[in-house]
Amino acid sequence: MYGSIFSLKPKQGMREDLINSFKDNSTPEGMISWYVMNPDDDGDLIGIAIFKNKDAYKSNAENPETHQNFIKMMEFLDEEPKWNDGEFVIGEIA
């Protein structure tokens, strides 16, 4: 599995709008799951995107629809997300 863990810094008063905007996105080919966490400390939102493999992840990143979703997402953010891409080496579904 391959994917990204990323932080999202919403603009003042835009947190819920950002969260709601994600509900409109379709699930890309090769994606296993994705999550957005609202931390207890009320800091930046944390996102996790998990794909079957690196090729599926890269294919999604290069998809024009993904770019349009990114442009829409940036309307709600103070700055670009901080991405940490890599291979998930341990994981379990309960």
Give a structural overview:
The chain has 94 residues and is α+β, with helices and mostly antiparallel strands. It contains three helices and four strands, in the order E-H-E-E-H-H-E. The chain has helices at 15-22, 54-61, 64-74; strands at residues 2-8, 31-37, 45-51, 82-87. Strand 2 and strand 3 form a beta hairpin.
List keywords for this structure.
94 residues; globular; alpha+beta; 29% strand
Which structural class matches the secondary elements?
Answer: alpha+beta
Distance between the termini: 17 Å
State the shape: globular
For the biggest β-sheet, the strand order reads 2-3-1-4
Fraction of residues in helix: 25-40%
Strand content: 25-35%
Please specify the SSE layout and strand pairing.
Layout: E1 2-8, H1 15-22, E2 31-37, E3 45-51, H2 54-61, H3 64-74, E4 82-87
Antiparallel strand pairs: 1-3, 1-4, 2-3
